[in-house]
Specification:
The structure is a single chain. The protein is about 35% helix and about 20% strand. It is of the alpha/beta class. It has two domains: about 120 residues, 2-keto-3-deoxy-galactonokinase, substrate binding domain (Nucleotidyltransferase, domain 5), CATH 3.30.420.300; about 180 residues, 2-keto-3-deoxy-galactonokinase, C-terminal domain (Nucleotidyltransferase, domain 5). A five-stranded mixed β-sheet has the order 3-2-1-4-6, with helices on both faces. Strands 11-10-9-12-13 form a five-stranded mixed β-sheet, with helices on both faces. The longest helix is centred in the last third of the chain and has 20 residues. The chain is globular. About 40% of the residues are buried.
Amino acid sequence: MENAGYEPSAGGARPDWIAVDWGTSALRVWAMADDGTVLDRGRSDQGMGGLDPEGFEPALLALIGGWLPAAGTIPVIACGMVGARQGWAEAGYRPVPCAPLALPLTVPPVSDSRIRVGIVPGLSQLRPSADVMRGEETQIAGVMALEPGWDGVVCLPGTHSKWAEISAGEVVSFRSFMTGELFALLSTRSVLRHGLAGSGDDDEAAFDAAVLDGAARPEALAARLFTLRAEALLTGLPAAAARARLSGLLIGAELVAARPWWLGRDVLIVGDDAMAGRYGRALSAMGVTSRTLPAERAVLAGLSRARALAARESA
């Protein structure tokens, strides 16, 4: 575990609170000072998807136990799928338009008196289409904390990518796309998997062309996907090019569907991995300039805002 060797700072400081981002497949924790300094961090693969309700507290304590005081209670502020119906305790959804964060936080029961856990609620909408988000609202709150007064669109790539319209301090509307999950399923469970295995970096030129193809003819997506299989058999299409084209076709189709969110808008991508880079490259191919904010910076800024709200309520 990354925090197994945690030691207090030279001045003997312990965390003032603990930040938690708990997704379906991973748990990330940060030991935080009240001024926003990260004192230590940890990560495990104990995501929500592999735990029952009784397993959440032990999984959390396995990572943060070395940070806890001998006496007293430390606040733990969590976001993500930990608050799902199948998670530790359901945190519910707040309908948009609304600020991305608000009280109350959901407080699950714990047996260890050294921690008090608060879970951030998600966001929902019924119109123009039914949608929900959980975890991304905290990153959006982080964007708003780091970019005061900013209006525009936040793109949050991931398994289920989100496009959220931000105005006057509120999330006005948002739209989710299963692009990341579709890529994972098609590349590992479909007939296309046979032509995608192999090493080597993805082909950027192939990706750029596929983005434009996917955006220009989204109605032909299913047929264009099978072309990858046929070309692998008939022309020996390299795996790197096939992966790039699969990604480009899916993201291109997403971009044309998300046009009302990004057209003529200031776009900020939250992420720091290859997927965030692909979205920035795809937007550039569509003639859109975007900026990128690291995901960790956004989520910690958002969790810090949630911590401040909770602290004011209990003061």
